[in-house]
Design brief:
The chain is α+β, with helices and mostly antiparallel strands. It has 6 helices and 11 strands.
Length: 289
């Protein structure tokens, strides 16, 4: 009997030791994930000030941008990049990598690295998507690699007021425009033919669409996490609600618009924790007087 009790105590002690070791490793892993998340967000926020605001003035137009970003896990597959292309052109790229967590986050880092190699044609949205697609397709042999990625790339020229956009299976950027009755409204901006997601077909061609900002114009680039967020009844937040919020808050400042969207999303979810990654980039082009 004494032997059995001693053996049991030894087993219990070993279990406690293993449990403490596991807790220690989990804590270390959590700490490392936190550092990785901070790095991921720091890279995306480059160029923005502490209030998540960016502004640049050209001879004819003024450009502003702000963002809201919240991963559903420690690391996200959603990412954005504000790209200073030249003295007069700025690009906004928003991508959504399939899945979330470490693997998806690694793909976002890969995409950022690839973008840095495209300096000679960053002002060509369709070509940028073409090249990203080819690079991702070249990784097709690794079935564990989450290469399926949607993307929208918008370029704005603060000299001419021209906008150009290309799309790879991504929700179309919303913009403020006017209907036939002259009233302001928000709807997906002109984007021409939308190609499929990146990483599927290596020889896929992506298309450029150009248009002019005739007056103060606001844009919202986003990933599908926001429109797919469900309430307690299973109803999705949806694009119409997003357009309505933007319309009701137009002219209130980009940061204020994003704050209102965030509060509405929280109300829908009933919590601060959302079902999917949330990535929003608001942009405003204003003609100089």
């Amino acid at each position: 009997m004494t032997y059995d009790i001693t053996e049991q105590k030894q087993a219990e002690e070993q279990a406690r030791s293993l449990s403490e070791e596991l807790r220690g490793k989990n804590a270390q892993f959590e700490a490392e994930l936190l550092v990785a998340r901070q790095l991921q967000e720091t890279l995306m926020s480059m160029g923005f000030d502490r209030d998540r605001h960016f502004a640049k003035s050209g001879s004819n137009w003024e450009f502003e941008a702000s963002y809201y970003y919240k991963p559903s896990h420690h690391l996200a597959g959603d990412f954005f990049d504000l790209i200073p292309i030249s003295d007069t052109k700025l690009g906004v790229l928003v991508c959504d990598v399939m899945g979330n967590g470490v693997k998806a986050a690694l793909v976002t880092m890969l995409l950022r690295g690839l973008i840095s190699e495209f300096s000679s044609f960053l002002d060509q949205p369709a070509k940028v998507l073409d090249q990203l697609n080819k690079r991702l397709c070249s990784l097709a042999e690794d079935q564990e690699f989450p290469r399926f990625t949607t993307a929208a790339y918008l370029i704005l020229d603060i000299e001419t007021g021209m906008a150009s956009v290309a799309n790879a299976g991504h929700p179309g950027p919303l913009w403020k425009t006017r209907g036939e009755d002259g009233r302001e409204k928000f709807e997906p901006c002109p984007s021409g033919e939308r190609g499929p997601a990146l990483g599927l077909v290596s020889d896929q061609e992506y298309f450029l669409h150009e248009f002019h900002c005739d007056e103060t114009t606001e844009f919202l680039l986003y990933t599908d996490g926001i429109i797919g967020q469900k309430d307690a009844m299973g109803h999705e937040f949806g694009i119409l609600k997003l357009e309505e919020i933007l319309l009701n808050n137009r002219g209130n400042g980009l940061a204020s618009q994003l704050k209102t969207i965030k509060l509405a999303l929280k109300l829908t979810a009933g919590t601060d924790d959302f079902d999917d990654d949330i990535c929003l980039v608001a942009v405003k082009m204003s003609p100089k007087a």
